[in-house]
């Protein structure tokens, strides 16, 4: 068993059932994620999804880490980040049979997304039927204009650079 906690600092902490901290995750996508508001995993606990206060969904692959958490080569990989809502995500879950992620927001909307690509299928209450097999049409909801960002494996967390010459008033110049 594994426990996951989401925090206002954008950090996800993975805990053993004994209460030992196993791993801390920080998103490194191009969008600042902000406070995390929702978490879910698939049934086999291979995928971890997090929703943010700004409406983003972040997808991690945690399968290899959970197989052997002591092996440092088995890293948790951030795979995808997309803007799902213009406001806070309050709940999400993965429907594995159809590979669909369902998200809900404080704006009252419930939306469907392709689980692997973050492509938008539609919202509950729309007039047309959901077409879950066609992921070739890249459409977005009307209040979101950012396409999903695929996170490359070689991406690293941004490190703070040390400033050699801080801004100072130089009267001679």
UniProtKB/TrEMBL annotation:
Keywords: Repeat, WD repeat. Pfam families: Beta-prop_IP5PC_F (PF23754). WD repeats lie at residues 82-113. Signal peptide: none annotated. Residues 27-114 form the IP5PC-F beta-propeller domain. Coiled coil: none annotated. This is WDR64 protein. The gene is Wdr64_1.
